[in-house]
Structure formats: C-alpha cells, structure tokens
Amino acid sequence: MDDIVRQALAKWPNVPHCTGWLLLDRRGNWRMRDEAAQAQGAPGEPIRHEALLGFIHRNYEADARGQWFFQNGPQRVYVELVYTPWIVRLAVDANGALTLTDQAGGTFTPNAAWLDDEGGILLTQAPAGEREQPRVAALHDHDLDLFSEHAEIAADGQSGAFHWRSDVTLPLQAIARADVGARFGFVASPAGQATAAQAAPAPDDHGPA
Fold first, then answer.
1. What is the pLDDT of residue 4?
2. Residue 43 CA to chain centroid, in angstroms?
3. 126, 147: one domain
4. Domain presence at residue 95
5. 109 and 132 both lie in a single domain
6. Residue 148 sits in which domain range?
7. Cα(13)–Cα(193) distance, integer angstroms
8. pLDDT in tens, the chain (209 residues)
9. Same domain, 101 and 67
10. Residues 111, 62: contact at Cβ < 8 Å?
11. H or E stretch covering 149
C-alpha cells in the first residue's frame, strides 16, 4: 500500500466505502461504472490512465470476507469481479519457457490448475501465509490456444494435465464456475456487503493525488 494512502487512512479513518463503481472484467481490464452503467448492468468504460492503473494495482487487496477492493486514499472502493480477482496472461519467453503474468504485471507461479464447466482455465498460486487462501486467477481467453499446446484435456472436458515446466506437470481438476468463489474464498459482487456499506460518491478517476 502506498504511503500516501496510509497517511490518508490515518487522517480520515471513517470515510464510507464505495461499491459498484469499479469492475475487473474477464480479460483483466479495470472499468469505471457510472450510475447509468450500474443501472443497465453494463461493464462500464475501460480505465486507460496509466498512473491510475498503477495506483489501483499497488493498492488492491482483499478484506477478511474475501471482498476485493482498491484503497483510494481514505476510501475503500470495492471491486465487482466478472470472474476471479486475478486474470493471467500466458506467454513464452526468449528461452522457450512458459510465463504467467497477472493484470498488475506481477509474476504468477501456479501450483494447481482447474478446468471449469464453461471451458475456462483457472490457476492457483500457493498462499504466502498459512491462514491465507491460494491466489486464484482465470487464464485470459486469448491464451487458450497456447495453453492447449502445453496441455492434454480428456474427451469429457473434466480432467487432463498442464505441462508448466519440463519437470512440473499440473493435473487439471474439474470445477463448476458457480463454485469458484466459495472454493477460493472471494466475493465476486461485494455491493451491500461492505463493512460500512453506505452509498458513496464515485472514486476520483483522474489518478492518484
């Protein structure tokens, strides 16, 4: 978390939370949802401002209930998740090894792989602490062809294997998309469940102060 955010929290500790205004889509794009977008159930406009995107990534985390938020100064902006809290891209580096990178630009090292009932691929990363949940990410749909080049999927679409490294093969486990949030401890739509769930104005979309 940025120091400027910690200072704002200390100065204004009781600013109401904001829900509904920020969304992470299935391809890892952050979207700002105004009142019209919320009323229509639309995803909202993609955020393009590089400084704001960096600010969101540095201050993105989950609360004890598994609700993900962006700490915008003293205000906690809860995030609507189209699927998982993280979206990863699969690529091949200059040495021919596979790499996974999350929407914040961080390295993602999988320890398990999952195949959902809609054909999506999920990957988990071991938690940093004993009490934490594994970090779960959905693979960007543009990378499914590359994934298939390094995987074997059974005819029934419910099992298989992902060859992550020459010496690391991850079994593909079946999971229903509807069960993913509960299985990995996150809330896809935290609106109305925040600890201070008053309505609040939209977050400032012009970048960090």
1. 58
2. 15
3. yes
4. yes
5. yes
6. 86-179
7. 19
8. 556 545 544 444 555 678 999 999 999 999 999 999 999 999 999 999 999 999 999 999 999 999 999 998 888 999 999 999 999 999 999 999 999 999 999 999 999 999 999 999 999 999 877 667 889 999 999 999 999 999 999 988 889 999 999 999 999 999 999 999 999 999 999 974 444 433 344 454 434 43
9. no
10. no
11. helix 144-149
Given a contact cutoff of 8 angstroms between Cβ atoms, the answer to whether 21 and 203 are in contact is: yes
Is 120 in the same domain as 143? yes
Query: Does 175 lie in the same domain as 91?
Result: yes
CB atoms within 10 A of CB 74: 16
Co-location of 28 and 63 in the same domain: yes
Tell the burial category of 48 from Cβ atoms under 10 Å away from its Cβ (0-12, 13-18, 19+).
Answer: exposed
Question: Cα dist. 165→32, 98, 135, 145 in Å?
Answer: 38, 7, 20, 17
Q: Could you give the count of Cα atoms lying within 13 Å of 76 in the half-sphere of its Cβ?
A: 21
The residues pairing with 71 across neighbouring beta strands, listed in sequence order, are 76
Same domain, 117 and 166: yes
Question: Is 31 part of any domain?
Answer: yes
For the record, the structure tokens of 108 come out as 């993602």
Position 78, amino acid: Y
- Cβ distance 147 to 89 under 8 Å? no
In a domain, 94, yes or no: yes
Which pTM was predicted?
Answer: 0.84
Q: Are residues 68 and 98 in the same domain?
A: no
